[in-house]
Specification:
about 5% strand, DNA polymerase, domain 1, hpI Integrase, Chain A, 12 helices, elongated
Length: about 325
């Protein structure tokens, strides 16, 4: 059974451009089911039945797995069996008889406009790191970027004159992200004054390469650099963001993805149409973007309840 799993994970990498994290999850969790099946004397994917799958799901429930984790495993198994059938490795997909647990819909929490302003203004612009952090916060919010998209940007992906970023999104799908005047201004300041000083650090920490017997300077191409002149990591930025949120007086946890949520919600609040927001965020389906209309409507309702004299009870 492991041979088919290995073949599938190679397919995910080579043809689906799946991330290392996704591939690792699929391999581990499908292998867990394979071990369960073999413990029940099932040694072939052709022998797996809906009954065996239900026993496995029942065991996950007993072990305390939440609904979202169970639903993810069903989805993984379903996709795996589609691959097996397409390649003639099985004739029947037993996962078709399995229903995923119904999950409560959780609306993304955006920041308010005031919170966004306070957060973006938190970095100290007298330092290279502060210039960098201001530019990153502006790009996350102005372009609706994922944190992985932001930190994978190279200098050559930026067009300041056109206010555009060349972004590699999920599944290596490329798109153009548009940024506004304030983001362009912050990014220009970082590129002119902050990044050159951070890039110098790469030389102090061995940023050189040998060509034809000569040592040449190897300038880093990453847009956002750490204090060693190397590409900034997600974990470091997440810690910085928490510190800036605290400095801004924001009392609830703030994640990088909240700025992306805020971008979508504030765009819709401002009158942008759903298809435009979908395109800007790089969503494959408009249904993914549609959740933000619910967030926007929820905020509008809260505004009405606070502001309208006849909207509140006992008014």
């Amino acid at each position: 059974m492991q041979e088919e799993i290995d073949r599938y994970t190679k397919y995910l990498v080579a043809e689906r451009n799946s991330s290392a994290h996704t591939v690792s999850n699929y391999r581990r969790e499908i292998s867990q089911f394979a071990a369960f099946a073999q413990a029940h004397r099932v040694d072939s994917w052709c022998e797996v039945t809906p009954s065996l799958l239900r026993q496995w799901l029942a065991e996950l429930h007993r072990a305390g797995y939440v609904k979202a984790s169970v639903a993810r495993r069903i989805s993984e198994m379903r996709a795996f069996y589609v691959f097996l059938r397409r390649n003639g490795l099985v004739e029947i997909n037993p996962v078709q008889a399995i229903l995923s647990p119904k999950l409560p819909q959780r609306l993304p929490r955006p920041l308010t406009r005031e919170e966004v302003d306070l957060l973006i203004e938190s970095p100290d612009l007298s330092t290279p790191q502060g210039l960098r952090d201001r530019a990153m916060l502006e790009l996350l919010y102005s372009g609706g970027l994922r944190i992985s998209e932001l930190l994978s940007l190279d200098v050559t992906d930026v067009s300041l004159a056109e206010g555009q970023l060349h972004v590699a999104g999920k599944g290596a799908k490329e798109r153009v992200a548009l940024i506004g005047h304030k983001a362009i201004e912050a990014l220009t300041g970082y590129l002119n004054e902050g990044r050159p000083k951070l890039a110098e650090a790469s030389l102090r920490y061995g940023g050189r390469t040998r060509v034809d017997g000569k040592w040449l300077t190897k300038r880093p191409v990453a847009l956002f650099l750490n204090r060693f002149g190397q590409r900034l990591s997600v974990s470091v930025f997440t810690r910085l963001l928490s510190a800036y949120a605290e400095a801004a007086g924001i009392t609830h946890p703030v994640t990088p993805h909240m700025l992306r949520h805020s971008f979508a919600t504030h765009m819709l609040d401002g009158g942008a149409d759903l298809r435009s927001v979908q395109e800007l965020m790089g969503h494959e389906s408009v249904s993914t973007t549609q959740i933000y209309t619910q967030v926007s409507q929820k905020q509008l309702r809260e505004t009405i309840l606070k502001a309208h004299p006849r909207a509140r009870k006992n008014s």
